[in-house]
Design a protein that fits this description.
CATH architecture of the largest domain: 3-Layer(aba) Sandwich
Radius of gyration: 19 Å
Number of helices: 7
Shape: elongated
Oligomer: single chain
CATH topology of the largest domain: Glutaredoxin
Number of domains: 2
Helix content: 25-40%
Strand content: 15-25%
Distance between the termini: 46 Å
Number of strands: 11
Largest sheet: 5 strands, mixed
Length: 210
C-alpha cells in the first residue's frame, strides 16, 4: 500500500510497550508522529528514541503524541528501553509498537522492496487530529533523523492550517510568512491590516507579529 499526503492514515490494532493500541482511538484529538526503526538494538535509532523522550515538553506544547515502531516483539522493546536509559539518560514515555508480523509496516509502506523483508525503512509520518497524513519523511540507515526539522514542519502545518499563508524557505516560528496567492489584494488587505510587502503579485510577505 502506498501512502499519500492528505489521505486518512491507515488504522490498526497492535501490541505495544503501553499495551494494546488501536491507532485512531489512541490518537484521539491529537497530532501524531509515527516513526519506524529497522530493528531493535541499533545505534542510530537508540540515539533517536532518547531524543524523542527528551523532547516531551515540545511535543506537549504542540498537542503531539509520538509513537515508535519496530518489527521486534514487545519483550525486546522493553530490553531496548533499558539500553536507551543507560546510554541516553532518559526513560521512554511513549509507546513502541511491536510489529513482528510486519502488518503495520506493510500498511504504511515501510518495507523497502529491495531489502530484507523483515527490515523496515526509517520512516516518519506526521498525522493530524482528523487522521490525515500531513508529512512523510524517509531516512537511510546511516543518517539520524533531524527532530528540530520535524518540529519546525509541525509548527508550519499548525500555523498554516489557521491562516491563508505558507511558510517560506528556512522559515522558523516568529519569522515572516507568505500570503496565499489565492487571496485577492482586497482580501489580503482585510486579513492583514498591519500591511505586507509585495515583491511580485504572487509573492507577498507579511509579519504576523507586527
Amino acid at each position: 500500500m502506498t501512502i499519500h499526503l492528505g489521505q486518512i492514515a491507515p488504522d490498526f490494532e497492535q501490541d505495544s510497550t503501553h499495551g494494546r493500541i488501536r491507532f485512531h482511538d489512541w490518537l484521539g484529538s491529537h497530532w501524531a508522529v509515527l516513526f519506524s526503526h529497522p530493528k531493535n538494538f541499533t545505534p542510530v535509532c537508540t540515539t533517536e528514541l532518547g531524543e524523542v523522550a527528551r523532547l516531551r515538553p515540545e511535543w506537549d506544547k504542540r498537542n503531539v503524541k509520538p509513537i515508535g515502531l519496530s518489527v521486534d516483539p514487545v519483550e525486546a522493546h522493553r530490553k531496548w528501553e533499558e539500553d536507551i536509559h543507560d546510554t541516553q539518560g532518559v526513560a521512554l514515555d511513549f509507546p513502541m509498537i511491536a510489529d513482528p508480523d510486519a502488518r503495520v509496516s506493510r500498511l504504511y509502506d515501510m518495507i523497502h522492496p529491495e531489502s530484507d523483508p523483515a527490515v523496515t525503512v526509517r520512516s516518519v509520518f506526521v498525522i493530524d487530529p482528523s487522521k490525515k497524513v500531513r508529512l512523510i519523511l524517509t531516512y537511510p540507515p546511516s543518517t539520524g533523523r533531524n527532530f528540530p526539522e520535524i518540529l519546525r514542519a509541525i509548527d508550519s502545518l499548525q500555523l498554516t492550517d489557521t491562516r491563508s499563508i505558507a511558510t517560506p524557505v528556512n522559515w522558523l516560528p516568529g519569522e515572516p510568512v507568505v500570503i496565499s496567492p489565492k487571496l485577492s489584494q482586497e482580501e489580503a488587505n482585510r486579513q492583514f491590516p498591519q500591511g505586507y510587502k509585495t515583491l511580485k503579485p504572487y509573492l507577498r510577505i507579511v509579519d504576523l507579529h507586527q
